[in-house]
Write a structure and sequence with these properties.
The chain has helices at residues 2-16, 20-33, 38-50, 54-67, 72-84, 88-101, 106-118, 122-135, 140-152, 156-169, 173-186, 189-202, 207-222, 228-240, 244-257, 262-298, 304-314, 322-336; strands spanning 340-342, 347-349, 360-361. It has a domain at 282-361: Arc Repressor Mutant, subunit A. β1 and β2 (347-349) form a beta hairpin. The chain is an all-alpha fold.
């Protein structure tokens, strides 16, 4: 048994290096020592599949089924091999067979969902997801997929219901964005914008709610939206996306309709302050760059305090604290990928033309 395990590990190593012939030969040697090992049979099938020898792959997967007819991995893999052969009906039957045994089995579920979506059969996709959720009702990924399918067939209330369940179990950026888009399609624009904002609060770099906010902005412009509160909500959402230009534009759209809208004035002041601070940070980065170049040319030791003091001397109008300047230096080095190391007292620049262990301390 130990020799069989060693051969199995060796075969895996060949497989990971994409040396499939060597992997197959090694797995077969392991199989001679352990002929009822399903794992080995499935790995041989997978190696053949990756060689695009699909019939051979199916043959070896079927040998695994002879040992265990309910092996869902073997059934799924046969289905995928048929899909690779473009025998889609046979593929669907195998995926369905795997799901009859284990309705929430992720691989077969994803593969079958993909095929039903490609064939534009959303109702069949909905049915298999509902079956999976009967077994595992708290699976947020399946709830999100079900919400998306209901959205596609314009069953918006059902879509929102499933997204809300997903959010209850796991408040994710995807679920909030998706429910936001469903609200938008339903015409519930305030709820849509608030949902996009919730998504951005989780991850302000997430591109989908960012894109959807811009779509909302263009839609409001095209339809000459007169509801000040919607423009203010949109401004606030753009603020969370750190898209200050459109946050300000949205505020101004509201103030153009109602110059005394207090909430719009409040958000506008916050945005302008943030924009000003961002502009000053960009100016600070220019001074930081000049300081790094200057000290690196001097090839002399400099402490953090000396670097910060030099920057404050060169740009006294920026009015940053010492800590803010220090963190700005660290951020700048990270953002630019500069070959600089830091410790408590110094910045250490590794010269590009020197060996790894030769450093210039500044």
């Amino acid at each position: 048994m130990t020799k069989s395990k060693n051969l199995l590990e060796r075969g895996k190593s060949f497989h990971e290096r994409e040396q499939y012939n060597q992997a197959i030969n090694t797995f077969k040697k392991a199989l001679n020592l352990d002929p009822d090992n399903k794992d080995i049979l499935i790995r041989i099938g997978l190696s053949y599949r990756l060689k695009k020898e699909y019939d051979s792959a199916i043959e070896w997967y079927e040998k695994a089924l002879e040992i265990d007819p309910d092996d869902v991995l073997a059934l799924n893999n046969i289905g995928y091999a048929y899909e690779c052969k473009e025998e889609i009906e046979k593929a669907i039957k195998m995926f369905e067979k795997a799901l009859q045994i284990e309705p929430s089995y992720e691989l077969a579920l994803l593969n079958l969902l993909k095929l039903f979506k490609e064939r534009e059969e959303p109702n069949k996709a909905i049915e298999i997801l509902k079956n999976a959720l009967e077994v595992d009702p708290v699976n947020p990924e399946n709830l999100i997929d079900l919400g998306l399918l209901y959205n596609e067939i314009e069953e918006f209330e059902l879509s929102i219901r499933e997204y809300k369940k997903a959010i209850f179990f796991e408040p994710s950026k995807i679920a909030f964005n998706n429910i936001g888009w469903t609200y938008f399609k339903k015409g519930a624009y305030e709820n849509a914008i608030k949902s996009f904002k919730r998504s951005l609060k989780i991850d302000w770099r997430y591109d989908l709610p960012y894109s959807n906010l811009h779509k909302t902005y263009k839609y409001f412009l095209k339809n000459k939206e007169e509801n000040c509160n919607l423009w203010v909500e949109l401004a606030d959402a753009f603020y969370y996306a750190k898209e200050y230009k459109y946050a300000l534009l949205s505020c101004n759209r509201c103030l153009n309709i109602n110059p005394r809208h207090s909430k719009a004035e409040e958000i506008k002041n916050i945005i302008l302050e943030k924009k000003e601070r961002n502009n000053r940070k960009l100016e600070l980065e220019i001074v930081i760059n000049k300081a790094i170049i200057t000290f690196s040319r001097m090839a002399s030791s400099v402490r953090w305090n000396d670097m910060i003091g030099y920057i404050k001397y060169k740009a006294p109008e920026l009015e940053f604290t010492n800590s803010e300047i220090k963190f700005a230096i660290i951020d700048y080095i990270d953002k630019k990928g500069l070959n600089i190391r830091l410790n408590d007292k110094h910045l250490i620049i590794v010269q590009k033309n020197e060996t790894r262990d030769q450093k210039l301390i500044i």
